[in-house]
Write a structure and sequence with these properties.
The protein is an all-alpha fold. It is about 45% helix and about 0% strand. The longest helix is centred in the middle third of the chain and has 28 residues, at about 15-45.
Length: about 60
C-alpha cells in the first residue's frame, strides 16, 4: 500500500493536486461500493445494518 501522506506529491516531489484528488475520489467510490455490498449481504441474510460502518484500509502491519 502507498503512504497516504505522500500521495499529494508526484515522484519528483512536486505537489500534484489533480492526481491526489483523483486517487481520493477513487477511494471514496470504492468505500461506497463496499458499504453497498455489505448492506446487501446483510439484507440477503435477514439483517439490517443500523449504525455507522467505519472502514480502515489495511496496510502490511495490519495483517
Amino acid at each position: 500500500m502507498t503512504n497516504h501522506r505522500n500521495e499529494k506529491y508526484n515522484e519528483s516531489g512536486c505537489a500534484d493536486k489533480t492526481a491526489y484528488e483523483a486517487i481520493r475520489n477513487i477511494r471514496r467510490e470504492e468505500r461506497r461500493n463496499l458499504i453497498f455490498e455489505l448492506k446487501a449481504f446483510a439484507n440477503k441474510r435477514g439483517y439490517k445494518i443500523v449504525s455507522t460502518i467505519r472502514l480502515k484500509e489495511m496496510d502490511g502491519e495490519d495483517w
